[in-house]
Amino acid sequence: MHILMIECNPNGIAGIANALELGHEVTLVSVDPDFYLGASPLAEAAYAHPNCHVVKSEQAFSIDELIALATDLHAERPIHGVTTYSEYHTVHTASVAKALGLPGMSVEGARNARHKHLTRLTLDGTGIRQPRFAHVADVNDIESAVREVGFPCVVKPSDGTASLHVLHLKDEDDLTAYLAELADVVDYGRGVVRIPDILIEEFVTGELISVESCVLAKGEVVNLGLTDRPLSGFPHFIEMGATYFSGHPLQDELFAMTTGILDELGVDFGFIHTEFLLGPDGPVLCEVNGRLIGGIVPTLMEISSGVDAYLQVIRQALGETPELPFPGRTTAGGHWFGAPIAGTVDSIGFDGLAELPGFHGAQAYKKPGTEVSRLSKSNFDWIGHIIFTGEGRDEVNKRCEEGLDAIDLRMKVEVAR
To answer: 2-102 in CATH: which number?
Structure first.
């Protein structure tokens, strides 16, 4: 079978590699294929596989151009499934699948999930618990919208991801600094152009937790499990860990809310990642992502369930019924880490982790000699992760925290004179 992968993400290269190993043919369309060579240890071997075709297209983020390209590829070698692991390209994937008559999410549902202002506006008045919000499409209206919602508040681009440019604003000085920063942001790199829409939201205190789901044929929502998401301190919201589990006291309510949200938005196909804040009055919807959760969590799913979620995304795109990764008796979790100060990576050592209970694995994202920023603004500041297992999320999180102390990170830092 021939799979068209519209962009990817670094961890998602594992899905391409697994599909190739099973004998499938994969065509990856990307603005910058070399990005994955530097971001994934699996990319070089995947690219070299005879059944892997890499197409570089500067217009991969233009839906019309992408549909034309996919149509030409389909004429050359029939495509049997279209998918992506990239948050930026979920609408593109839905649009191409529709154009080729292949399984996929409705384009309207993909848009409603992808653009955070459409999520808020579509659900407004439905009874789904959301923060108070204001939506602006002109940067000149941000100040008045912030004053409408009030301080403290959270401001975020409608089409962002990985917590990039999401900020907690406590006062006018924070707002002035944010507007100055946002003025320079016209894209997110790799051809992804930023839309002007911005959301200003009431700041809701509480734990961040997500529901992982799969929407099967005819829109049947199957809620799989939960992922906790500890965050860094203000003003940015950097995800610092994740544990895939079941059994939270609010699980039934979270599952019911997720089903209702996806139905209202028209999200009718695929693996879905829905985030909530556990506020003082109950769960509050944070956002909906119309794709498989990213980062290390698909690996955590596989450790706990024995099911490769990356591969199930591809199977579903091919029209097959996916095997679902429900949490098992073993709980798996991980923590990301970054640099405490900007500098150049000299070495990252994990030797001290091997003897710790529950240690499963570790990975560094940056090679020696790579310049890195201080962990301060978004998930893009991560430089590695560790993974542990245990009998429950409390034990796993404790083991991860102990593991962070055993990492030997050495850096070269310029000293001001």
So the answer is: 3.40.50.20
How confident is the model over 163-172, as a mean pLDDT?
79
- Render pLDDT for 91-113 as a digit per residue (tens, 0 to 9): 999 999 999 999 999 999 999 99
pLDDT tens per residue, range 112-154: 999 999 999 999 999 999 999 999 998 889 889 998 999 999 9
The CATH number assigned to the domain with range 132-202 reads 3.30.1490.20
Contacts of 271 (CB under 8 A, 6+ apart): 212, 213, 214, 291, 292, 293, 309, 312, 313, 316, 322
Q: Find how far residue 41's CA is from the centre of its chain.
A: 19
Cα dist from 276 to 76, 110, 128, 282, whole Å: 44, 19, 11, 10
pTM, to two decimals = 0.92
CATH for 207-412 is 3.30.470.20
Q: Residue 301: CB partners within 8 Å, gap ≥ 6?
A: 212, 224, 225, 244, 307, 309, 325, 327, 332
Dihedral pair phi/psi, residue 352, rounded to 5°: -75, -5
Whether the Cβ atoms of residue 387 and residue 303 lie closer than 8 Å to each other: yes
